[in-house]
TrEMBL record:
Pfam families: RcpC (PF16976), SAF (PF08666)
Ranges where the SAF domain occurs: 57-117
Superkingdom of the source species: Bacteria
Entry protein name: Flp pilus assembly protein CpaB
Length: 313
């Protein structure tokens, strides 16, 4: 009986020893480190490239040379993203596909409406019935260099007294003429876009302002009916340009499609006096007639001593 109990106790002690040994072995192992989820690694180069791509604008360019008057296809075009976008450039392929350029265009040319429209910058700034005419100016005629494209000016004429002009005169020969350009600075075309690309950098803008202040020519939009009058005035005397107030809203009315050419012609005819002075000729001379005989020419009076007698020529 005692030996049987001893064997049972020995077995229990052996099992307990095995369990204790296993448990000690488990506790003696170092726990595995817990790793936190890692964020995806993004390189600095990729970040900078993504930011620059967002700041760029798509522009439609030609991938090869194209001849004039041939419709463009998708194979002729590509879209490139530029940091500095030319003014008025096309940004989508469907804006150019199927359209015909009016001149040969080289590969790499960016497209705008000018690529498909006839005429130069000045021709796109005037309407039918208007003419673009250049006028020479200096610091006085050009209002101290303060003129800008889009301003409206009155053209004044001063005639000095000389052998062909009996008395000096000053008058408005052309009222409310629109300035198209001052020097090489041009305004907007009739579609509202700049006729030529504006300066892109501050240095270019400063140089453009300096050239405008020293401009020696301006171009006016002149109604066709007043074109010869401006030419005569420029040759007959001294011109002056008088700037009109922006509060008159003349430019806004022009962009709204209103035509003031008839009003300008009527005003010019009303305000212009002694028009013959523009050609430097005097008024027609009157032929004297004998009293009681309309249309008859007066005889020449011949004086001999104390006697005087009319003689018929």
């Amino acid at each position: 009986m005692n030996s049987r109990i001893s064997m049972v106790l020995a077995g229990l002690l052996l099992i307990g020893a095995l369990i204790a040994g296993y448990w000690g072995l488990v506790l003696s192992r170092s726990p595995e480190p817990v790793t936190a989820p890692t964020a995806p690694v993004v390189s600095v180069e990729k970040t900078v490239a993504a930011v620059e791509d967002q700041n760029r604008t798509p522009v439609v360019v030609l991938v090869h040379d194209v001849p004039a008057f041939v419709p463009l296809t998708a194979a002729d075009l590509a879209v490139e993203k530029l940091r500095t976008v030319p003014a008025g450039s096309l940004t989508q392929l469907d804006q150019a596909i199927g359209r015909k350029p009016l001149r040969m265009l080289a590969a790499g040319t960016w497209l705008n409406e000018e690529s498909f429209n006839a005429g130069g910058p000045l021709a796109r700034m005037i309407r039918p019935g208007e003419r673009a005419l250049a006028v020479a100016v200096d610091e006085v005629i050009g209002v101290a260099g303060q003129l800008s494209p889009g301003d409206y000016v009155d053209v004044l004429l001063f005639l000095r007294q000389d052998n062909g002009n009996t008395e000096p005169s000053a008058q408005i020969v052309l009222p409310a003429m629109r300035l198209l350009s001052v020097g090489d600075q041009m305004g907007l075309a009739n579609d509202g876009t700049p006729a030529v690309p504006p300066p892109a950098t501050p240095e270019e803008r400063a140089q453009a302002a300096q050239r405008r202040a020293g401009a020696r020519t301006v171009v006016l939009a002149v109604p066709e009916a007043l074109l010869s009058r401006l030419m005569l005035a420029a040759q007959a005397g001294t011109l002056r340009l008088a700037v009109r107030s922006a509060d008159e809203q003349l430019l806004s009315r022009y962009w709204a499609g209103e035509s003031d050419a008839p009003d300008k012609l009527e005003s010019a005819n009303r305000d212009l006096y002694q028009f013959t002075q523009l050609a430097l000729i005097g008024p027609p001379k009157r032929v004297a007639t004998v009293a009681g005989e309309p249309g008859a020419r007066r005889g020449i009076e011949v004086i001999r001593g104390a006697q005087a007698a009319p003689q018929t020529p």
